[in-house]
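Notebook B, p. 112. Complex prediction, attempt 2.
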Amino acid sequence: MHPVSRLLVAVAALMLVSAYFVPLWQIQMWAPQYPEGLEMKIWINTLSGDVKIISALNHYIGMRHIEVGMFPEFNYMIYIVGFIIAFGLLTALVNRRFMAYAFFVLLMAAAIGALVDFYMWGYDYGHNLNPDAPIKIEGMAYQPPLIGTKVLLNFTAFSGPDIGGWIFISSGLIMMAVVVMEWRRARKTA
Amino acid sequence: MIPFNNRPYMKMFMKVLAVISVAFTIVVVDSCKPKGPQEAVTGNAAAKVYVAPGKYDEFYNIVSGGFNGQMGIYGLPSGRLFRILPVFSQFPENGWGFSEETKPMLNTSHGFVPWDDLHHIALSVTNGVHDGRWAFGNANNTPRVARVSLKTFTTQEILELPNSSGNHSSPFITENSEYIVAGTRFSTPMGDKTDVPISSYKKNFRGTVSFISIDKESGNMKIAFQLLTPGFNFDLSRAGKGPSHGWFFFSCYNTEQAYTLLEVNASQKDKDYIMAVNWKKAEEYLAQGKGKKVKAKYAHNTFDEKTHMATSTIMDEVMTLDPSELKDMVYFIPCPKSPHGCDTDPSGEYIVGSGKLAALVPVFSFTKIQQAIANKDFEGEFAGIPVIKYESALHGEVKKPGLGPLHTEFDANGNAYTSFFVSSEIVKWNVKTLQVLDRVPTYYSIGHLCVPGGPTAKPWGKYVIAYNKITKDRYLPTGPELTQSAQLYDISGDKMQLLLDFPTTGEPHYGEAIPASLITPNSVKFYRIEDNANPYVAKGEKEAKVERKGNQIHVYLTAIRSHFTPDNIEGVMLGDEVYFHVTNLEQDWDIPHGLAVKGALNAEILIMPGETQTLKWKPDAVGVFPFYCTDFCSALHQEMQGYIRVSAPGSKVPLKFSTGKIEDEGTGAK
């Protein structure tokens, strides 16, 4: 690997350490009577924000109370991210091109895995409703948006990366650039 | 650290990164967050609500105060608050419920109740049109109805309702003010056997709907009859008018008959009911002697404008009619999902039911209801009362109107205005075609709404007022407890236009607005002193005096700018009860006097010109106590004061009183 590539791999790996200190994902909601919005932040091992208020509002349409305990992911995400960081640092240490490719694939896999996992939770949360709910609207489900904006009754919900998520994405973009660079160099030398 | 030339690498890397980032930005970041709520005020809103100093508003808006138990009197279009008119709650500001004369107004079968929760206003009507005589209000907690005079803006009468809990569906009024009604929110066990398990709701709990007759001349209220109903919750109601005059419509929820966690358990059925009552039929049954008198204890309190005193009478029986036995008087019409508002349009043909959990608004036709009854087009019975088929009574449904429909008012052009709590908006739609015409946001979560004359046969139109449940960021914050608020919209054009936010006292539930021209000419300026028949009146300073009756001291006190007579009182012993009967001798507009006594455990009293009001005071120590006028009456208001001397029990100080009499300044002796 080019020495700069090597350095960038280390930087990309170390950037992920931020995941332990800042929220990764955010869900924001607005309604006519909540112009200031409600938000839920997803961290590596917990939730924060207006989770109780959101749960209290959602119970009218039969959605479950959101609790940290309902996400087993919070128990092992710290290890997964730890492994990714370690793998990145190892890549920089052993300084092998295929390791850099593997690190990029690992990052992508982690991102896709997280999104798939989030989608599956959102599907269950939005469809698996209490049949005794006070408000039942025929054919209506309340799955939150995976990424972007969606109108659900009187609420407009937005889902997207938070600071940690953006750092993760930046890390991925850097690695993508490194992969492109190394690919070109490998082709040139071949 | 990096041993050879990195420039080419870095240049290339930056290029690659830039391409990746741009692509990423276009694909992902662009799908971003929605915009916040837009500010809705447009155009010449300020000019439309500006009432120049010294000019009058066009409408009175008489608004319930909710949990303050009072009515708020506002002007429209300015939104200015003129007065808080005390009804069901003590009001230390003017002594309502504290003065001896007004205390009986708050008497009930439970004793003296100093507070209530006033939700709805009904203004008196003749031929379905506002006549400007009376405003009625309901007490939700300890069930009562009140009648307020729109000449004096004072509460004239309060009638308690027996066999009632949670008097919410009240005080809606018939076309010629024949009756106001009172339906029970809470069903409860009634009669002799009331100590029953709560879980025996279905078997033992009943509701009632009371029809209270109003005397055409005096306005005096009397419970004409109570309908015994199945045990569920009545919410709101409206009288028929025009072709449907003689009928009354009540929304009912909790036909599930739940007695716990109603939030869930009373929200299970697809449809609850609107109860249609043929009250002319009820009158026939009464005339035939089919009613049943039952024992019931309730208070009837009246205020006499001549004596300026209230009297409380405890009544002991009430007439009842049972619709499960007396046929053709009561019908149920299925209505989706816990109906709240139940409003009849100006023509009297259409009845709008607003299921607060429903995704549509059904409109029923009076003609179709009559046909369905004639054809016995019933889907069954509930507790012996026929249930009309939904489709047979239906004129049509307003589709996708909004979320959480609550109440509907009307203009004179065939349009309806429905409030939507959840989607926080007012939606205008055409009653005949059921087409949605316009919608405006409210800030936030509107409850009731009011078009001037909106519930009558002749809407005055022009505005719609939103009474909101949430205020949030609309005003300067005042800690956790914020102001309550209303909003004014112009409805004279095709599009509704937000004009004004204005704060309200208490929580505004329902209000009615009436042209000022129907009220202002009759407004009383002061009471004629010659007509004052209070037993403790002093119609001049010569009649001022102090009398002892056992341990009661009666002070016949006069007030005129700027002194009390008498203003020196001696001979009161500790243990005595002192009654200050204050007569305001002024016969001039806007010169009230007040009275406050140091250490009094009640309040001040305000006495209008020509009126007599009494403040009771029980001294708790020996000494000389001051009293003074609390209403800034004149340039020498601050001189309007007096002293009352309290001596030890058994002391030899004689009872004496005077004003302006100078005694020996050294010893106090003559």
